[in-house]
Amino acid sequence: MKIMQNSGVPIYQQIAEQFKTDILNGKMKQGEYLPSIRGLAKELRISVITTMKAYEELEKQGLVTAVQGKGYYVNAQDSEMLREQHMRKMEEFLMSAIAAARVAGITDKELLETLKVLCAAEE
């Protein structure tokens, strides 16, 4: 796990986002336990409170559940919710691409053609 001390994003948020990405991408499976709060805090050399805040954030989002004495485990993910979250992520990336195209003077036609070429290359 990579933590950027000077990124301007709170450390707990960075941790939560990295776990969220791993869960939504299927790197962490249903029922899998997250590292212990103390263990992760020690590994990252951060406060236990910071780690706990990250895990509580994931719990608020419904991605993990706390089990007394055992820690936090990954919840089953609703496939429709996963699709929706991936759609939102894709839309963010496409909005950035559109903004970059506007700055570069690229037409909508050129932008769409580029997207078609990239999609074809992935198949």
Describe this structure in words.
The protein is mostly helical and 123 residues long. The chain is built from 5 helices and 2 strands. It has helices spanning 11-24, 37-44, 48-60, 79-104, 108-122; strands at 64-67, 71-74. Helix 1 packs across helix 3. The model has no long low-confidence stretch (mean pLDDT 91).
List keywords for this structure.
single chain, 123 residues, mainly alpha, two-stranded antiparallel ribbon, 62% helix
Helices and strands in order:
Elements: H1 11-24, H2 37-44, H3 48-60, E1 64-67, E2 71-74, H4 79-104, H5 108-122
What is the distance, rounded to the nearest whole angstrom, between the alpha carbons of the first and last residues? Answer: 31 Å
Mean pLDDT: 91
Q: Could you say which overall geometry the principal axes of the C-alpha atoms support?
A: elongated
Rg (C-alpha, Å): 18 Å
